[in-house]
Amino acid sequence: MSVRNITTMSGFLLTGFSDNHELQILHALLFLVTYLLGSAGNFTIITITTLDPQLQSPMYYFLKHLSLLDLSSLSVTVPQSIANSLAGSGYISYTQCMLQVFFFAAFAWGEMAILTVMSYDRYVAICFPLHYEVIVCPRNCRLAVTVVWLSSGISGTLYIAAIFSIRFCRAKIIHQFFCDVPQLLKLSCSNDYLVVLGVAGFLSALALACFVGIVISYVHIFSTVFRVPSAEGRSKVFSTCLPPLFVVSLFLSTGSCAYLNPTSDSPTVLDLLFSVFYTVLPPALNPVIYSLRNESIKTGVRKLLLSSEVTG
Known about the structure:
Strand content: under 5%
Distance between the termini: 52 Å
Order of helices and strands: HEHHEHHHEHHHHHH
Strand order of the largest sheet: 2-1-3
Number of domains: 1
Low-confidence stretches: 1-5
CATH topology: Rhopdopsin 7-helix transmembrane proteins
Shape: globular
Number of strands: 3
Helix content: over 70%
CATH superfamily: Rhodopsin 7-helix transmembrane proteins
């Protein structure tokens, strides 16, 4: 595709990971396997936390919504990237690009919000066990989840409204495998991008507040845990608390590195890997992370498999 065509076309050109067709096929296969495994894992967690009567506590209610967000987040960027690699074309229409921006921003914020809620749930459960059922009652759980999804929609709307105010003056080449906001800002005219930066700054401040809340929750949790005399009790607490801490650390550290670094016209392999770490890996790995040390989840999966075998 010529530079002239790129400049005048209505959509954008995603450069992806490589121009080499064999490497594009390899990238498509790796993404396909990741997408299928991540989707299957998240769908399994959604299913067992919905059907298993033993997994109806607030912790698993929040985990179900985290899996819903993860499943949705994976579906925003990965299938389009697979299709582009298989077709050997990085073209994405303007509408598809804007939808990616909206849903990616919405689900990224939703993940941050639900992880904050989950950390507070663990904090109350471990530090105030006698008051847990009053504080984390079904009504408050539903309210928290409603706020998570509503704030997700508001986050996506703010981003997309800001992006719509941008006029694109440069060749519409995005050096990414999806419509990344920092890359879009590079294509804007003069100071058009200032509105987007304002939205990004506002949401970043909220994300930082969430992160501080998560850190404070876990400081209190671990200080309480280390006073527990039973090694088995400490192990049980760690099995439910360490997975969310790992997830939020991976998500925030890689996302921050990607967004704080200045965007380049020739991104390195490391830059692209960072984008995979905060867009693809967290939602794909969450089911593994949450089930690895959680006996209730593993028991629920076994019951689901046994019931499907009996039905079959």
